[in-house]
Amino acid sequence: MKLLKRTAFSLLGILLLILTIATILEKIYGTDFVNEYIYSSVPFVILWGVTAITSLLYIIKSKLHRQPVIFLLHLSLLFILAGAFTTWIYGEQGTMRVRQGEQQTSFTDSKGISHQLPFSITLNQFEIIYYKGTLAPMDFISHISVADKDCHRQIQGKVSMNHIFSYQHYRFYQSGYSEDNEGSVFSVSHDPYGIGITYAGYTLLLLSTVFFFFSPQSRFRQLLKSPLLHRSLTVILLLFAFSLNSNFLKANSPSPKVLPREVAEHFGDLYILYNNRICPLQTFARDFTIKLYGSSSYKGLTPEEVLTGWLFYYDSWKNEPIIRIKSNEARKLLEIEGNYARLKDYISTINEYKLEKMMNHIRSGEQVTDKRGIEEADEKFNIINLVYTGAMMKIFPCRNIAGKTLEWYSQSDQLPQDMDNDKWVFIRKSMSYVNEMIVMKKYNDACLLLEKIKKYQQKECDGLLPADNKFKAEKIYNQFDYSKSVAMACICIGLICFIYYCHCMASQKRTSRKAIIILNILLWIVFTYLSAAICLRGYVSNHLPLSNGFETMQFMAWCTLLLTFLLQRKFAMLLPFGFLLCGLTLMVSMLGESNPQITQLMPVLQSPLLSIHVVVIMIAYSLLAFIMLNGVTAVILHQSQKECKEQIERLQIISQIILYPAIFLLAIGIFIGAVWANVSWGRYWGWDPKEVWALITMLVYALALHPRSLPWFHRTMFFHVFCITAFITVLITYFGVNFLLGGMHSYANG
Q1: Which of 128, 565, 575, 713 sits CB 3.0–4.6 Å from 707 for a disulfide?
Q2: What letter does residue 744 receive in the DSSP assignment?
Q3: Which ranges in 270-355 belong to alpha helices (H)?
Q4: Angle 608-639/716-731 helices, nearest 10 degrees?
Q5: What is the pLDDT of residue 572?
């Protein structure tokens, strides 16, 4: 029995070590290397198999079948492994390229080996559906015919993003198309047995998880009955300090020339094609200001004032220290001392571009110190020039002669030769007329010209512009630029709570009811703010805002507050935890994406399964973060050299209770993601670094659910230290993969 237990958990430890090493090797040697020598290798498959068999024998020896729910839970994981093994043996995957009108009877796998189909596929038509009024693809659709000689019949089908075509256990996925739009690229998957077994495992996992929480015999229900939970003990938190930047000091220096605010707002009310979508010019102005300065406001000026300042008062603005330079190497090249450069700092006294020599080295492929930082500094210089010349201001829509295709142009673009002369003159001259009115300070006339440009936009884009409500909603959303203030407020409130709870614990006093009410009111204010921001962003973007690092961290902050509301009566310490975690995740959202942009969602990401996957995973991460903070609190109490044994034990029980839904949600989230990947990509597991680290996280935390087999977890302080240490896997899963390891899930790559 002991030998079986040691063998099973030792093999699991070896698997975790190999998975960790594999993600590092993938970064160094590439995906093909780890796929060939680790993930698809026979020894790796044998290791999984031996681990599964040993675990099954240990489960049987432990007589776990006497606890049906727990037995089914473990059995579901074995089913999933059996399905993966079956896919490894019998599954086939590859790529098929077919032109319109062409018939194809085979596909090619990753090794270049051709596999014959028992039928033929003909591509009748391929079409791209675009987002309204833009050239951003919304969906790719292939209309196909299947000719089956054995059945003497022909079947019509359709393949598109998130819509597969299946025939005789062969599944076809739309993965790409030819450059001339005359051909399709299909991912082909043939897995007649593995998918069924794996999905049976997923179903069994879901059912056993639900039964577990309702079973009176489950350890989760027993922990809820602990007498320690019914005592009104309060606990405290850890300290986090963030230094504020000194931007507010710059606000007292003289401001550059700007348009009157109401005139600048007229500019912000125009439409523009930006990020492959039609949006208010205000959005472009906001992103432009953030890109240059790191904030959407400069010296109290609105984004529209900053943008139009560069457009019409270039000589004044080129002397402004508005360009944030993060790279020390770039600062040396520009010969500046602070963090902000002026545009004229880019040009030497002999009228040479200071970054030109280094950029030439970068373009030639040479190794350069802080290449990314120098490229970013160069990018900002080029963006300013593109704005000043009007090249980025694609505010003039124009239909072709047939009236079917809509293109957007800037004043400086090369216009089609067959363009109507009146349109040609309007596009070329209208902004010059606006400039003349501004030079003569005839601001009312300038506003009238801007209104004419907007009417032209509305006429030319009849039926293709965003609805007025969405246009207004986006302008309102652009005002929601207080994340940093909210984050700092939450962190400060959490810090005050820490001091207050420390005082209450030291003096053996109960927390003030008034203080709790005030904290809940503040929590509601932050929750309402975040809810409004998330809803507006989702409404404007036409999809759940969970598609990038900024959005998921905002949603995690929202989940944290929601969990705080739901659980604080049972676990009082969640109130300060909620404020701190909300503040930290909001800060991280800004660090992870300093220039958040609303973009059209890739066709493959338009799936409700993906949204559910992200929501479930982020809730799990929030719960694991609560457990980590519980552990930190326990360590602080333990080190205080006071008699806090009962409080520390109570914290352990609370963490154990939260741990069950956290791990089960993480497991369910992973497998929902696997179903989405199978529907969208033709495979439910691809050993992507984020998939691997999510699996590592789940397995590491799952160890703590086995105190009978691993008696160390009965020790209170060992459990708390483990929970703190295990949170490193969460950080690597989210941040390490996103910004270091890369992969398909990496926000930094996309």
Answers
A1: 713
A2: T
A3: 281-293, 303-312, 314-317, 328-334
A4: 140
A5: 66
The span from the CA of 296 to the CA of 482, in Å, is: 10
- The encoded tokens of residue 118 equal 């028992």
What is the per-residue pLDDT across 141-186, written as a single tens digit (0 to 9) for each? 899 999 887 767 788 889 887 678 888 889 898 888 887 888 898 8
Query: Mean pLDDT: which of 529-538, 550-559, 636-645, 713-722 is highest?
Result: 713-722
Q: Which residues of 487-524 are buried (b: 16+ CB within 10 A; e: fewer)?
A: bebbbebbbebbebbbebbeeeeebeeeeeeebeeebe
SS3 assignment, position 93: strand
pTM recorded for the entire structure:
0.64
Helices (H), 640-703: 645-681, 689-702
Residue 271: count of CB within 10 angstroms of its CB: 23
> Could you tell me the two tokens for 159?
């393949």
- Which residue in 597, 599, 271 sits closest to 408, CA to CA? 271
Residue type, 441: K
Q: Comparing 230 with 196, which gets the higher pLDDT?
A: 196
pLDDT at 593 over 70: no
Task: Give the strand order in the sheet containing 103-108.
Answer: 153-160, 137-148, 114-130, 103-108, 92-99, 183-190, 170-177, 165-167
Q: How far apart are CA 474 and CA 280, in angstroms?
A: 7
AA identity, residue 68: P
Helix axes 483-506, 513-541, angle to 10 degrees: 160
Query: CA of 546: how far to CAs of 169, 466, 523, 536, in Å?
Result: 33, 21, 23, 13
Q: What secondary structure letter does DSSP report for 298?
A: B
- The residue behind tokens 């043996």 is 89
Residue 493 to residue 213: CA distance in whole angstroms: 34
pLDDT at position 595 is 45
Distance CA(321)–CA(270), nearest Å, equals 28
Residues 230-258 have a mean pLDDT of 46
* Rounded Cα gap, residues 21 and 2, in angstroms: 28
Cβ atoms of 719 and 652 within 8 Å: the answer is yes
Per-residue pLDDT tens over the stretch 389-411? 888 889 999 887 665 668 899 88
What DSSP designation does 181 have? S
Q: Which two tokens stand for residue 425?
A: 């003159």
Q: What are the residues facing 536 on neighbouring strands?
A: none
Q: Is the pLDDT of residue 534 over 60?
A: yes
- Distance CA(511)–CA(445), nearest Å, equals 63
Residue 183 in contact with residue 126, Cβ under 8 Å?
yes
